[in-house]
Write a structure and sequence with these properties.
With 505 residues, this protein is an alpha/beta fold. It has three domains: 311 residues, 3-Layer(aba) Sandwich (Alkaline Phosphatase, subunit A); 82 residues, no CATH class; 73 residues, Arylsulfatase, C-terminal domain (2-Layer Sandwich). Helices cover 31% and strands 18% of the residues. The strands form two sheets. The chain has a ten-stranded mixed sheet, sandwiched between helices. A four-stranded antiparallel sheet has the order 11-12-13-14, with helices on one face. The longest helix has 36 residues. It is globular. The structure holds 2-deoxy-6-O-sulfo-2-(sulfoamino)-alpha-D-glucopyranose and calcium ion (CA). The site of calcium ion has 5 residues, from loops.
């Protein structure tokens, strides 16, 4: 059974000496960064030495998952330690109820100086922070606006650099008498994967390995067939691949938004560098007149180039932050977390985007470098989920974990003192109808099997054996020899739903 353990730790917020020794928390999160493009997890596409450094000096969670693979819901889970059916953030469209308890509020009350810089995306005003500078909605890659403690301001430059600069400024000017908790939340590597012009040279001549199921035909998987996130059909040549030709011959659905919302934000110098880079590619693209599979593969290569350049910029900027901690004597007493709000498809099943309970978007990278003393560098195999972050921060801060938090602190896993752990995780995606047309679904994943129920205007089940079919191509549901396994998984799923207080459909 799922034990919702509450670790009781001694805390005495009024004892200043004790408060001063509380570890700082630096919680870095990117948007849509896949584990496939983080070299401590997978080094086929890119080396990420700075992200890897956190893993090397800390802990890499090999089986890290989200509860709902989409932005606002995932952020709400991380803040509250509760599933979306209880924190109310079922999808991106809902406004986060910021009156509820969150870990920043608990830490602030316990004497932490708290700040949030970067993506928020929860619509309501951030609460629980002494300082915040957040993007408006998704924000922009270039010259983006921020809401700084209630006031709108524009910051010139490339967003990953700007968010890092602002974070370092805050660290420099914070109240140094108090421990800090900084949420440094990047916009990158979100669509439209607009790279920093300084990084155009990177990955220029690389021919990226194409996933074996890039041309998946979704046999036996009805919901997968009906999505709208395919590189072939749904990736926009202008919006996503930046093929805005001056002659206006490439007219796509999203050409106008690209021209008006992305390109027009650039200053003349930025435009000049961007044109100088893309114009020859556009020219060749037009001359080549690709169609069918060749065109899909071309889009995949362009997508990978731009996406990986965004990862490169994240890695460089994480390096700046780690250096700052070293140079300011903060490294030893700071928990450094790097994660993403969910995973992403790098062409697997022919896709970009996320949402599905399939591995690439169910998983999210998670590395943590703990304060000195409790850091046994290692890899953790247990199934962990984004509900666990808030309890982890609470325990590290020496606070009691509120009983309504549904996750578990990861500290015992790292110290090697855990007595039991979960044997399965629960997932639930709700944003349908909606962008990319991924049907509503919920399910269970154990270390070996995954059972998913797609519902609403559909009623289908899928079962995968991750050991024999890691790419999730063969739906075993309905095959007689798996009948008993399906019954067991359904029972376990029912238990999870009951434990997590999911109301009956
Ligand atoms: C935008 C994107 C979608 C993406 C959602 C949610 N379109 O609408 O592709 O799925 O955000 O992303 S875009 O072309 O306008 O970028 S999330 O990470 O915020 O959940
Ligand atoms: Ca996201």
């Amino acid at each position: 059974m799922l034990g919702l353990l509450a670790y009781s730790c001694t805390s005495n917020p009024s004892d200043e000496d004790h408060t001063a020794k509380k570890p700082n928390i630096l919680y870095i999160m990117t948007d849509d960064h896949s584990y496939q493009t983080f070299s401590a997890y997978d080094d086929r596409f890119i080396q990420t030495p700075n992200l890897d450094r956190i893993a090397k000096e800390g802990v890499l969670f090999k089986n890290s998952f989200v509860t709902n693979s989409i932005c606002a819901p995932s952020r709400a889970v991380m803040l509250t330690g509760k599933f979306n059916h209880l924190n109310g953030q079922l999808d991106n469209r809902i406004r986060f109820d910021s009156s509820q308890a969150t870990f920043p509020k608990h830490l602030q009350k316990a004497g932490y100086e708290t700040a949030l810089v970067g993506k928020w995306h929860l619509k309501s005003q951030p609460t629980g922070f002494d300082h915040y500078e957040v993007l408006i909605g998704q924000g922009h890659y270039y010259n983006t606006d921020f809401i700084e403690n209630g006031t709108r301001k524009r910051s010139d430059g490339y967003v990953t650099d700007v968010i890092t600069d602002k974070s370092l400024d805050w660290l420099d000017n914070r109240n140094k008498e108090k421990p800090f908790c900084l949420l440094l939340h990047h916009k990158a590597t979100h669509r439209i994967w607009f790279p920093d012009t300084a990084l155009f040279k990177e990955f220029e001549d690389v021919d990226f390995e194409v996933p074996s199921n890039f041309f998946d035909e979704y046999e036996g998987r009805v919901a997968a067939k009906e999505q709208a996130m395919s590189i072939d059909k749904d990736m926009d040549l202008v919006w996503d691949n930046k093929m805005m030709d001056k002659e206006g011959e490439i007219q796509t659905r999203l050409r106008k938004p690209y021209a008006n919302r992305m390109y027009s934000r650039l200053n003349p110098e930025q435009k000049a560098v961007i044109d100088a880079y893309y114009d020859p590619i556009i020219k060749k693209f037009k001359a080549d007149k690709l169609t069918g599979k060749e065109l899909a593969l071309w889009k995949y290569q362009r997508y990978m180039q731009d996406y990986l350049r965004c990862v490169r910029s994240v890695d460089n900027n994480v390096g700046r932050v780690l250096d700052y901690l070293d140079e300011n004597g903060l490294a030893e007493n700071t928990l450094v977390v790097y994660t993403s709000d969910q995973g992403f498809y790098m062409g697997e099943h022919g896709w970009f985007d996320k949402r599905f309970m399939y591995e690439q978007s169910l998983r999210t990278p998670l590395v943590m470098r703990f304060p000195k003393g409790m850091n046994a560098p290692k890899k953790v195999e247990e199934l962990v989920q984004n509900i666990d972050y808030a309890p982890t921060f609470m325990e590290l801060a020496g606070l009691d974990i509120p009983s309504e938090m549904q996750g578990k602190s990861l500290v015992p896993l790292v110290k090697g003192t855990k007595s039991d752990w979960r044997d399965a995780i629960y997932y639930h995606y709700y944003e349908y109808p909606g962008a990319h047309s991924v049907k509503r679904h919920y399910g269970i994943r154990t270390d070996r099997y995954k059972l998913i129920h797609f519902y609403k205007d559909i009623d289908t089940w899928e079962l995968f054996d991750l050991q024999t079919d890691p790419a999730e191509m063969h739906n075993l549901y309905g095959q007689a020899e798996y009948g008993e396994l399906v019954s067991e998984l359904k029972e376990r799923l029912g238990e999870l739903r009951a434990d997590y207080q999911v109301a009956a459909d």
